[in-house]
Each structure stands twice: as C-alpha cells, then as structure tokens.
Amino acid sequence: MKPLTLVPTVLLAAAVPALICFAQSRPAPALDGEPYIHDPSTVTVCDGKFYTFGTGGGGLSSEDGWTWHSGPTRPGGGVAPDVIKIGDRYYMAYARGGGGLAGGHASGVHVMWSKTLDPKSPDFEFKDDTIVASSDGVDDCDAIDPSFLLDPTTGRLWLTYGTYFGYIRLVELDPKTGHRVAGNQALNIGIDMEATDLIYRDGWYYLLGTHGTCCDGPNSTYNLRVTRSKKVTGPFLDNVGIDALRGGGKLFAAASGRFVGLGHFGRLDLGDGVEKFSCHYESDLDRSGRSVLDIRPLLWRDGWPVAGDNFEEGTYEIQSERSGYALEIAVDFVRMDRGGRGGGFGGRGAPAGPVTPIPAQELAQVLPNWPAGTLDTRLGDFMSRPHQKWTVTPVANAGGYPGSPYFKIQIAGTERTLAATADGEVVAVPAFSVSPEQLWRIDQLTDGTYRIMPKAVPNSKEPMALTAVGHSTPTLAKFEPKGDTARWNFKKP
Fold it and tell me: Does residue 82 sit in helix, strand or coil?
C-alpha cells in the first residue's frame, strides 16, 4: 500500500468541528445483520463459526460473532434451548410445553445430541432425544428453560431448569450420554426466576437467573441477577446473604438505553482473559421492538460477575495500564503559553490580576509543525495535547468479532490512522484505507482493562496485541494475560 500525503491546510479546516465532538459518543450498537431470536442458547463455537438456537427451533449463525443471519434449525420445536460441547458431541437441551401457555405448567425437558452444529455437514443430525426432567402442572415447578454446566473440577454434568412458577431445580446427567443419572433426585435451588445458568470460577458456583416479566416487548422487565455457592448443590446466596430459595439475587444486568428486558445469560470464554456473555433483549427499540441477540463483555470484581459494555466510539486518551503513560504520535512537543507568568517559577501564589483560564492547545496550533507521511508512535506523559487524542470509530462492512465491529483509531481531527507494520511495530499512516493492519479489535478483559489487537499483521499469521515496552515504547507482541504490559485504558481527554 502506498501512503497518501495529506495537505495540512485541508486538515486545518476540519480541525475545529472535529474537536467540538471530543466528548460525544454513541451507544454501542447491538449485533449486526439479522440477530432476531428469543430465548437464545449459549453462543457456541463449532468449526470456527458461532451458533445459537432459540424458541421455536430456529437458530442464528455467524462467521465472526458480529454479523448474524438465520442459521440451522433444530428438531423438536419447543422453547428456550441450551447447547454444550462435550467430547465430540454437541448436546442440546430444550423444553416442550409449560410456560403457562395452553399447556399450563406441564412440561418436559429433552436432551439430544449431534456431531456438529453446521447444517451443511453430513454429520448434522440430532439423535437420541430423551426426557431428563418433567413437571405435571400441579407440582411447584415448571420444567422449561434448561441450562448445562460441566463441572471443571469433577467432570460431572448438571442441568438447571424452571421458571418463575415454583422452584428452580438441579439434576445430574451422564456426560457420556446426556441421559439423567439413574436414581438422581432433583434439588430445589432457587425461586422467583427463570432461564437460569450455572457457571464455575475460582472455587465458586454462580447461579444466574432472569427475574422480572417477559414476552411483552418494550414493557418487559427482564433483568439478570446472581447468587453463588461453594457447592454446586447450594445454598446459593447473594452479596448480602439472601438465599436464592428466598428470592435473593444481586443485580448483574438490566435494561439500558434503547434495549429493554435483558435475559437468558450464556457464558462465552474466549481465553487469554477475555470472557463474554450472550443474552437477548426482549425489545430493541431501534429494530421495531423485536427480540434480539447480544454479546457483551463479562467482567469480574470482588468475586462477582459484572456485566461490561461493548466499546463505544469516541475520542480518548489511550493509557498504558502498566505505566500510566499515553499513546501518542512522535512529533515535536509544542509548549503552551504560560499565561503571562514569565520565567522562573511563575504560577506560584495568587495572580496579580484577574483569574483567567488558559485555553487548551488546539490542533490548528500544532498541525503545521507535524511532518507529512507515516509517523512513529511512542508513550508519554498525558498532557491533553492534540497528538495524544485518538478518535475510535467502528468501520462499517469490515466484519468484526464476538459482540463488536472492527474499529479505526485516528488522531482526533485528522486522517492519521494507527496501523501495524510488517516488522511488528505501530505507526500512524497518513490516511485510512480499510486494510487489515488498520482495523483494530478492542476487547474488554475480565478486570475492566482492554486488549487492543490489529485484525492482521502484514506477513504474519500470529495474533499480536499492542504492548508497552518499558515506559516509552509501544510495539506489537503476543498477548500475555498474566501481565499488564498489554492492558490499556480508554479515558476521556
């Protein structure tokens, strides 16, 4: 690619309106494409593609986790499925009946399996449909909304089910067959919720459940709450000690902005400290109020899961978590006016005259001093200068990754664009060209900091992340999840 040379006078005209927008940002959009689904199963990866299934049998699929379209259909119909991969099988649980509809609360939870989720594969065939739990409509339980947990500490397979009508129950399944373990008795572990999901982390079992009302579009009050236990069988308590069997639950996520009725949690562990969760909104007010899929960051704080937000476009300081220094382009430092203080140690004591503000340094004041062409980058003390302010913008029709599109990262008010080089360095090229080395993936890590990765590095197949070397040098290197050299913060300048 041959870089384009920008004429500084053109940029000067655009600088002022661009700077006015520094503090503005738009909420992160829901997924791209046609992500219409209700009661989605946990998003699952099969042969590099992403899949989820919903109520009624229909599913969605995605090549990258960002753009979604209609996908495979499972047999059995029914409601609220879940999927888990164990060995070479994908187990599918779903329910028929129940939900308080025509069938009342009499229902059965079914489990079946397939070798693949890809409908184009000759191995796509669900087999061995068997009932693993049921309710008769009289008992205080409604056997729908199943969800799997394969315990990483024991290898035992568990399934939760139930709705706001009566108890949430737990049964054990055989991970080799998906059938219920003979003689296993269902345990009551919660009430006043539905669409539950069990996950394990650092010695704790977390029960996430959907509280509130569903199926009323923009009037739905669905929200996700969480309790935890040291045992998979409970008791599950919230952060103030209230048992899930008494309606306890710490708020995890709820409606926000134009998205109403958040429910049906599913964990998606992408490795290297990146965890996300799938869910649906009962109503996306920007998509005719339809129920849609979303994928968001999953954070952890003080031993509890926290719902993160997908990255929003805006203008930021990009700050190294390790050193606190800011990413900047390597240009000469232009000193600001001292406000008439003269030499020496001016600025001490009360002003001799009226108190007046010193205006911020503007792009137009420094841009003529910046060289044309590609510029190196470096890290420096953040002083709210134009060469340290980066505008991050999603790129349409460039693909993405689970929950988010790719972004371009540019010096605010200019076309100077962050790019990866063939020798693993990071530079600012004169203009954006939608090339893979100028597209950036921004993942929020479980501690709330961010990992920044180019879509591709020229002449390399290895994934690399923006990394701080010492105090002053940014580079690209393999991401080290246990360190802080490749962790970044985005702060409003």
Answer: strand
Q: In 3D, which of 266, 246, 262 has the Cα closest to residue 167?
A: 246
User: 391-420 pLDDT, tens per residue?
Assistant: 999 999 999 999 999 999 999 999 999 999
Rounded Cα gap, residues 106 and 140, in angstroms: 11
Query: pTM here?
Result: 0.90
Query: What are 136's two structure tokens?
Result: 């008769």
Here the tokens at position 431 are: 């203009």
Q: Are strands 67-70 and 32-33 parallel, antiparallel or unpaired?
A: parallel
Structural domains of the chain sorted by starting position, each given as residue range(s) with its CATH number in brackets: 8-27+313-332+362-491 (2.80.10.50), 32-307 (2.115.10.20)
The whole-angstrom separation of Cα 100 and Cα 485 is 53
Nearby residues of 7 by Cβ (< 8 Å), 6 or more positions away: none
294 and 31 in contact (C-beta within 8 Å)? yes
What is the C-alpha separation between 440 and 437, in angstroms, rounded? 8
- What 3-state DSSP class applies to 89? strand
Neighbours of 390 (CB within 10 A): 25
Element (H, E) at 15: helix 8-20
**CA Rg value for the chain:** 26
Could you report the per-residue pLDDT of 309-329, keeping only the tens digit for each? 999 999 999 999 999 999 999
Q: Which of 199, 95, 178, 180 is nearest to 141 (CA)?
A: 95
